[in-house]
Amino acid sequence: MWPGVALSLEIMETLYSKKSKFQQIDLYQTRHHGKMLVLDGIIQLTEFDEFTYQEMLAHLPLFAHPEPKNILVIGGGDGGILREIGRHDLVENIDFCEIDEDVIRVAKEFLPELACGFDDSRVVVHIGDGNTFVNNKTNAYDVIIVDSSDPIGPGEVLFQKPFYQGLKNALKPGGIIATQGESVFMHQAWVVTLAGITRELFPVQAYASIQVPTYPGGSIGICMGSLGPDLIRPARQISHSLQTQLKYYTPKMHAAAFVLPYFAEQMLKG
Ligand code: SPD
């Protein structure tokens, strides 16, 4: 995924290492970055900075939507996205679809501060393929969030146009999608492809970039499409009590995340 690039974190102990039906799952205790979840050799999260990604992938679409009640999350077996969605009182139901139940099990055992997302009574867990799941849904969700791994291995199908068409069909009128959108520095071809697919399918499209120091390149994108609402400004105010639970997302960060460097703006112009 990152030719010529290596990122080193000092490991103190391997807490889990096993191949599931779908991928190699490794969980490490690092010296300076807390626990680290690695799938097929690729860092998914560290306790040090997981909040940046989980907060933005969840709160950008949830705050862009005026009334997010029914939510679908595809991928993200660690539970971090569910934890963030759970902070929204307006949300009534959260369908969660993950292909690899071993990731959920490992997160529940080793990453309780993320897997607490599964304790929310609004969450219904479906183990299976996200593409198949979404293709059986029509007019069902206000917000769909795709917390995928990268476009190799089990996540590959989640970066293709038929999947995005399925996401669109599964949305209610005025619905919003937000998907893991790789990095404007490291994966320009993927970013252009994803933004292009979203632009073709959705009347409103936007791409946000956020900082994640322990991802190669230090940043990752969120690709968003909307059937109505503006994406780059929150549609609702954040309460003081919710704001104080967060570390990265603020209404200012919401707008700022969509401000891209000139080369990325040009790249994403279509
Ligand atoms: N390049 C790694 C992208 C990982 C995205 N998913 C992370 C899962 C955190 N919930």
Describe the protein.
The protein is an alpha/beta fold and 270 residues long. The protein has one domain (48-269): Vaccinia Virus protein VP39 (Rossmann fold), CATH 3.40.50.150. It has helices at residues 50-64, 80-85, 101-110, 112-115, 130-135, 161-170, 188-201, 240-243, 251-256, 262-267, and strands at residues 11-19, 24-30, 35-39, 42-46, 70-74, 93-98, 123-127, 141-146, 171-180, 204-211, 219-226. The strands form 2 sheets. Strands 7-6-5-8-9-11-10 form a 7-stranded mixed sheet, sandwiched between helices. A 4-stranded antiparallel sheet has the order 1-2-3-4, with helices on one face. Strand 5 (70-74), helix 2 (80-85) and strand 6 form a beta-alpha-beta unit. Helix 6 crosses helix 7 (188-201). The protein is globular. The mean pLDDT is 96. Spermidine binds next to strand 4, helix 1 and helix 2. Spermidine binds at residues 42, 44-45, 53-54, 76, 78, 80-81, 147, 149-150, 180, 215.
How would you concisely characterize the structure shown here?
30% of the residues lie in helices and 27% in strands. With 270 residues, the protein is an alpha/beta fold.
Low-confidence stretches: none
Give the bound compounds.
spermidine
CATH superfamily: Vaccinia Virus protein VP39
Radius of gyration: 17 Å
> Terminal Cα separation, in Å?
24 Å
CATH topological fold name: Rossmann fold
- How much helix, percentage-wise, in residues? 25-40%
CATH class: Alpha Beta
Order of helices and strands: EEEEHEHEHHEHEHEHEEHHH
The secondary structure category is alpha/beta
Numbering strands along the chain, what is their spatial order in the largest sheet?
A: 7-6-5-8-9-11-10
**Oligomeric form of this entry?**
single chain
* Anisotropy-based shape: globular
> In total, how many beta strands?
11
In the CATH hierarchy, the architecture is 3-Layer(aba) Sandwich
Whole-number count of domains: 1
How big a fraction of the residues is strand? 25-35%
Residue-averaged pLDDT:
96
Task: Give the count of helical stretches.
Answer: 10
Query: Biggest sheet, in brief?
Result: 7 strands, mixed
